[in-house]
């Protein structure tokens, strides 16, 4: 199954995600590529665990989906997201048995090490989402990244490190085969949590069914309000990693109103959202996050609704109610 971010709950419940197999072990694979690992790894368990795979590449997502379906593993959930967003917002505390990372992107240049996944913050996050006795399994051809990851695990203060042989399935992935053909060695480590320092979930929720809690504002536009041009607006939120860019404004041919296209960047998570400005029967206008595109409601998305409202205020609108 393919899940979009908006299909999850925050945090989610494995019993909701895998209603036919609740209580089975739960395996997360980060960066599953074309999906060759799971069909080799799943049969090594007495019963097939519940599987969640996270990948940044949409092409890989589709290839892996086909491969898992053909292998009878179609109940596994695949999603296209940055791994740390999924782990932080979707996975409950102490819920995962195994996190598998095979051949992660090494980001070899010194100035790019910040892009590496296996750094102190991820180890601390993973330790809080793994069950007692759970583990991260890392297999990589990249010696320098391997040493870096081991050093970061120690520096996290929450992981013990055991090196050894990788599971056989990790040597069957696309990248493993590439390195094997070149006759190169791989490194393997098992990182086991030694402490449980809970890393909190964020202020994130799905698009709500109940209308009043969708971020919105009600305002009166000036009589003369007929926008003829629109300049891109960029807002960097102080003391956070959030940037909101109001990219464009479109007039609706069907209703009295407009739609703003906004780009909301919050750390690793980027969402493109639409914010409607729609006329109401009483002459006021409703500024409201649209459901289109399956947005999730984050502090940045609420702030984007606020940014559209403030832009309208700067043009003379009078706000009657703020719900963001
Ligand atoms: C070198 S490839 C390895 C793919 C596969 N594991 C294999 O062994 O064939 C690394 C993969 O990780 C994915 N990736 C990189 N950063 C990621 C992140 N933050 N979250 C999820 N996937 C990521 C990339 O899109 C890429 O497919």
For the record, the CATH class of the largest domain is Alpha Beta
The low-confidence runs, each spanning 5 or more residues with pLDDT under 50, are none
Strand order of the largest sheet: 1-4-3-2-5-6-8-7
Q: Which radius of gyration do the C-alpha atoms yield?
A: 23 Å
Mean pLDDT: 94
Helix content: 10-25%
What does this entry look like structurally?
With 324 residues, this protein is α/β, with parallel strands linked by helices. The protein folds into two domains: 2-193, Vaccinia Virus protein VP39 (Rossmann fold), CATH 3.40.50.150; 205-323, no CATH class. 24% of the residues lie in helices and 31% in strands. The protein is built from eight helices and 17 strands. It has helices at residues 14-17, 37-41, 58-70, 83-89, 120-129, 143-156, 174-181, 299-314, and strands at residues 2-3, 26-30, 50-55, 77-80, 96-102, 130-140, 159-163, 187-193, 205-206, 216-220, 233-236, 242-251, 257-266, 269-279, 285-289, 296-297, 318-323. The strands form three sheets. It has an eight-stranded mixed β-sheet with strand order 1-4-3-2-5-6-8-7, sandwiched between helices. It has a seven-stranded antiparallel β-sheet with strand order 11-12-13-14-15-10-17, covered by helices on one side. A two-stranded antiparallel ribbon has the order 9-16. It starts with a strand and ends with a strand. The model has no long low-confidence stretch (mean pLDDT 94). The structure holds S-adenosylmethionine.
């Amino acid at each position: 199954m393919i899940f979009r971010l908006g299909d999850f709950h925050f945090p989610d419940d494995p019993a909701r995600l895998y209603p036919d197999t609740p209580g089975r072990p739960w395996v997360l694979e980060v960066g599953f590529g074309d999906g060759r690992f799971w069909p080799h790894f799943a049969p090594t368990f007495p019963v097939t665990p519940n599987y969640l795979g996270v990948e940044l590449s949409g092409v890989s997502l589709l290839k892996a989906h086909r491969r898992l379906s053909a292998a009878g593993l179609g109940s596994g959930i695949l999603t296209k997201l940055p791994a740390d967003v999924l782990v932080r917002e979707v996975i409950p505390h102490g819920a995962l048995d195994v996190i598998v990372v095979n051949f992660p992107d090494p980001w070899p240049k010194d100035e790019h090490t910040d892009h590496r996944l296996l750094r102190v913050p991820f180890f601390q996050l993973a330790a809080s989402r793994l069950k007692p006795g759970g583990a991260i399994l890392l297999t990589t051809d990249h010696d320098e990244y391997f040493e870096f990851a081991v050093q970061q695990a120690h520096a996290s203060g929450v992981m013990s490190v055991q090196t050894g042989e990788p599971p056989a399935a990790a040597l069957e992935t696309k990248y493993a085969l590439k390195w094997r053909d070149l006759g190169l060695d791989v490194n393997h480590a098992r990182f086991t949590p030694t402490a449980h320092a809970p890393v909190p979930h964020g202020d994130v929720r799905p698009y709500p069914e109940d209308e009043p809690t969708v971020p919105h504002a009600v305002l009166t536009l000036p009589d003369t309000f007929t926008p003829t041009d629109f300049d891109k607006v960029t807002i960097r939120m102080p003391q956070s990693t959030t940037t909101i860019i109001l990219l464009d404004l479109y007039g609706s041919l069907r209703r009295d109103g407009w739609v703003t296209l906004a780009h909301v960047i919050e750390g690793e998570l980027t969402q493109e959202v639409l914010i409607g400005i729609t006329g109401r029967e009483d002459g006021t206008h409703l500024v409201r996050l649209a459901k289109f595109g399956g947005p999730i409601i984050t502090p940045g998305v609420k702030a984007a609704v606020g940014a559209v409202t403030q832009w309208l205020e700067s043009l003379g609108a009078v706000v009657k109610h703020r719900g963001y």
